[in-house]
Specification:
about 400 residues; alpha/beta; six-stranded antiparallel beta sheet; about 25% strand; disordered C terminus
Amino acid sequence: MIVEHLSLVDFRNYATAELALHRGPNVLVGRNGQGKTNLAEAVVFLATLGSHRVSSDAPMVRDGQEFAIIRARLSHGERKVLAEVQVNRQGSNKARINGSPSKTNELPRYAHVVLFAPEDLQIVRGDPSSRRRFVDQLLIQRTPRLAAVLADYDRVLKQRNALLKSARARGIRGEGLSTLDVWDDKLVALGSEIIVARQRLANDLQQPVADAYAAIAGADHRPQLEWALSIRGGDPEEDEDTATAPEDAVTPAAVAEQFRASLASKRSNELDRGLTLTGPHRDDLVLRVRSLPVKGYASHGESWSVALALRLASAELLRSESPAGDPVLILDDVFAELDADRRQRLAALTAGYEQVVVTAAVEEDIPEVLHAHVVRITAGTISDERAGGDE
């Protein structure tokens, strides 16, 4: 898949923007704050229904406007698809596919993108929510219908938390909480599906991550991915020492049974805190190299190698499974963060994808193998500087 053309209206600093992208590498060059990352963010939004920079949609809408439009012409071999989303400052977003109204969660079926960004270091060094966000965005790309499951889980979780807070405030216990059982059923059904899908993804990523790490770092540090699950006891959200366990032979029924038992055991504590304390919203993906947790033990270079390996492994997984071909790779200001050796290794590993979009403040940071089509961004103005390669 490639993005042939991107159009924006009232997105970030752009009142309007038109960007033609070519097959192969594309380099967007501009000083910080000029709008190059905004272009990358718009393409990523179509694929993941979210931003890698902010947790809500409102900041992506230009000041003074109520909504923004992202429109992209995508090429899937001989097939062309026009994907469009209206990002609303408030309320639900709206989508169109080839001019016809569509559900927003249909967009990832058509837009396949893997983003590399400086924020990726937070995947390995940040709190558990960073790792959950990485996994869930990849889940949506791999299985688009999970976008609805994740959204429904979030909605049920908010309802259940509101009920727990209300019960705490009113001193309700025991039989007075019959409505909580209804929300428990919904939470278990949706949450079990998410847990199983996340575990399956971690298993499928294991070998691609190991291969990518060795290619980037030039060393075999045996990277590992394991889920620490709150339904097994402990709280990965608050306790970094929560144990992990092998994920073999996990079934939805077994997960649901564990989830329900965990809810029962933690109910008293949940009522005291007015908060749901078990479920996929409190799980953590534990990353290790040399059998040690990356967070707290890995060097800066090792941490970057793990972060890049996670993204490369994601791209390889989507590449192997998608009938649409390669995902678009977007490398947003990544090369400035890397030493010369990792720059060259990353460039060599990504250059062979159908389409690569690189943003940089300093053109010299980009290895020559990725130089084909260069676009300069200045204060929201887009201009081709030179073009070459396969167009």
